[in-house]
Amino acid sequence: MTTPPTMRLYGKTTKPRRAESDTIVANPPLGSSEQGSQALEKAKAATPPALEKWMKDFGVEAQLPTIPKTEFSLVELWNSGVRWIISSLSEAPAKASDDINQGIQYLKDFTKYTRTLWVT
């Protein structure tokens, strides 16, 4: 186990305090969307029992609302957003080029117009 980094606060060097039961989670390697879906299902299955245990431990008497069923897949919704962003990013160079060309044409037209004002 590595030691935590030191912090400098008001001229004092301190180390962050951490309970022994705290766990440090490293960034896991990215997997496929199928692996992500499986992890999401595991998290959904683990959340209600964990909340029930917490409520029993702390004596909270509350009825949690049920999780609503959705008519759409969250994974498909996420993936459609990712596809839209990638598509927009792939079109960005061509769009920027078109905008620059329009700006150059505007400047050319503007300088022609101002020249005719000065000449006449």
UniProtKB/TrEMBL annotation:
Its annotated compartments are: Mitochondrion inner membrane
Tell me how this protein sits in the membrane: Single-pass membrane protein
> In the UniProt record, does the keyword Membrane occur?
yes
Residues annotated as transmembrane? none
Among the record's GO biological process terms, what is one? cristae formation
Please give the GO cellular component terms listed in this UniProt entry: MICOS complex; mitochondrial crista junction
Please tell me where this protein is predominantly located.
mitochondrion
PANTHER family with a match to the protein in the record: MICOS COMPLEX SUBUNIT MIC13
Member of which family?
Belongs to the MICOS complex subunit Mic13 family.
Partners and quaternary state?
Answer: Component of the mitochondrial contact site and cristae organizing system (MICOS) complex.
Query: Can you say what this protein is called?
Result: MICOS complex subunit MIC13
Source organism per entry reads Amphiprion percula
